[in-house]
Amino acid sequence: MVNTKIIRQRESLPVFPYRQEIIDAIKNEPLLVVIGETGSGKTTQIPQYMLESFPEFRLIGVTQPRRIAAITVANRVSEEHGCRLGEDIGYCIRFDDCTSPKTRLKYMTDGVLLREATIDSRLGHYDAIIVDEAHERTLETDVLFGLLKETHRLRPELKILVMSATLNVEKFSDFFNSCPIFVIPGRTHDVAINHHRDAKISSLKSTFVQRSVETSLYIHTQEPPGDILVFLTGQNEIEKACRDLEDLDRNLNYKPDVKYYEDVKGLVIYPIYATLETMEQKAIFDDPPRYTRKVVFATNVAQTYDPTTGMDALLVVPISQAAATQRAGRAGRTASGQAFRLYSRESYEQLEPDTVPEIQRSSLLGTVLSLKKMGINDIINFEFIDPPDPAMVKNALKQLFLLEAIDDTGKLTAMGNEMSIFPLSPFLSRVLIASARQYECSREVLIIVAMLSVEEIFISPRNAEKQMDADEKRKEFYHPSGDHMMLLNIFEKFRDNGYSRDWCRDKYFNYRALSMAKSIRDQLKELMEKHDLPLVSCRLKNYQVKDDGGRQRKKRRNSYQDVKYNVEKMLESFSTSYYINLAKRHPHRPVFYHYASATGPGSESIDSNSSLLALHISPTSALHPDNKVVRVDDLDWVTYHSVLYTNKALMKVVSKVKLEWVQERLGLFKKLAAANLDASCSKSKSENNMQDDTNDDNDNKVNSTMVDVQEVKNQDDEKKRKRLEVIEAARQRALARKSITDQD
DNA sequence: GAGCACTGC
């Protein structure tokens, strides 16, 4: 049955007049770059043209950066094509494979294709690969670029298309052997851009929320009807902006003395950020009531990875010119519009032209492990379109060595091979394997690992009363050993309550996060079964439910022995990785110091001082002094899952450990100093010599780090404390300064 | 002076 309406729709798309030209180009060229704006139809049409024109193609793969895009596009295309989703046309995302042996066109996330590549780096199932939304430059897209270039050498018959929305794509073409670029002319509307007369970005500081609210109100009262979209940096700012604008709106009396009040008689204000419930997110697409203007406050900030500490840090940084232009372009999607920048034209011109690709600002630990698994040993010389910072690569190699995933020559070990089975941070993969092969507690550790792989579990209500209620309710999950066991408690209670959304709401837990943890647990369990990793419980045999009130509880406080599980075994499993994040308490203060920073590039650069950065226990931790679960002086050694920089360095997910658990593994730091991890990199001799120097250096640093920690332990005079504080403050300032391009 | 944007396997 031919649906004429669908045909008419397909033919009205900007890409349609170029159908034959595109097909010819694909026929003649193994590599092709296609440019087309959002809405040009490139994502839905070009794969269909290929399906229709190349019947000999058994499978065409199209990657998308986001799950939702893969699903909706596949849906749309199967409808246009007149087949049921999952038959000729399907999609594949994590936890949801909607394809069949019949499938010839497969939409997927770039992460899925990357996982497939770790199993078969030739991508032998595919006759064509299309990397869509390449301009987003996700970590996965960038790695795929390098792999596909290699695959092209091995399989020149494989058709490779790179599709992008930006015009600045010579780079893609240059990378793929100067391949042709096909441009689909777009349909866009004019956007007028207004800059602030003189404000510098650096001078906005904390006033940007207030300024954005004032500007919104100005637009509302002075400009013709039309919605307003405001970009801010985080949830807090967004909520404050919503409140402030609502207050201002309430005080407006919509008298007919201003030109546009007859058309615009009120405001509807929406916040949008990821942790909002899906329903609340969808609300922003509702049509506002008549005569009202819609204002949306949305998020967007950048993540940075600090190579001097090897830690993730969330810092507010100025956007790039490209990102500013893209944001402004949002105003012209459906009609002409205006963009208001709260900073001057000069400030705009001083911004970085392009957004730094994700690969240059994130941890490469998992990426390097995947590449090694694919047989790519020489990571430094791997063909990246924009190579990552070599210091980041070296850091990743060191960490992988400390996890025993690679040996002292940089080669993948049997352990590393097994670790790459799991779609997890290599730290957590290592823990999971230890719990299965060594400590006999994988059934429980599996849960904790899943809980550590999801977004924030705790909801922090803004309302002070609710916040107190939330804090109170959290207490029932506390465990004297720390937060890992708390996570296990939470998941088990969630399970015992039938994975209920209402239960989550009552306890102030993020239902979406806990459901995701359940899915991940199930997936990991399947992978363990498939690869013969034993699933063993450490539940104690003689465990009986006994309620003898306070005495039992008091006894538990002084021991790691849970009445129910062998907690030591679980925490020992975690220590196989997290000895790298071992911290010792200051003798007289509730702060901690990292045991040996030899892992991070911190050891390479400045100082052994990085080990003296004061680490605080996060207020959300069961072990935080205010929570009174344990006395601070009962804490000696702890390991932490991650560090968050606020104005302090906060350890997140902290558990109490015994030094004897990690003593043996600490020896790996020593071995690291002697290892030559990028020996496989065929660098010039002089660079290799430099390499050796660095390694010698590391050896010294490891020692000095240990001496320093020892000093902290033995000495405790006021001067020393002062010195540490000065160092810490300097570090924090340096960290903040690095992120701001404008001078004060 | 307390708190973290977004993806994804």
UniProtKB/TrEMBL annotation:
Which PROSITE patterns did the record assign? Answer: HELICASE_ATP_BIND_1 (PS51192), HELICASE_CTER (PS51194)
Instruction: Return the annotated region ranges for Disordered.
Output: 680-723
Q: Which CDD domains match?
A: SF2_C_RHA
Instruction: Cite the EC number.
Output: 3.6.4.13
Kindly indicate whether the keyword Nuclease belongs to this entry: no
Q: Which SMART domains match?
A: DEXDc, HA2
One Gene Ontology cellular component term attached to this UniProt record is: catalytic step 2 spliceosome
Which terms under GO biological process does the entry name?
spliceosomal complex disassembly
| The keyword Aminoacyl-tRNA synthetase belongs to this UniProt entry's keyword annotation | no
Pfam families for the chain: DEAD, HA2_C, WHD_HA2
Q: Which reaction does it catalyse?
A: ATP + H2O = ADP + phosphate + H(+)
Domain of life, source organism: Eukaryota
Task: List, alphabetically, the InterPro entries matched.
Answer: DEAD/DEAH_box_helicase_dom, HA2_WH, Helicase-assoc_dom, Helicase_ATP-bd, Helicase_C-like, P-loop_NTPase
The GO terms this record gives for MF are: ATP binding; hydrolase activity; RNA binding; RNA helicase activity
| Residue span, Helicase C-terminal domain | 213-375
Record-annotated Helicase ATP-binding domain positions: 23-185
Query: Where does this protein have compositionally biased stretches of type Basic and acidic residues?
Result: 710-723
Q: What is this protein called?
A: RNA helicase
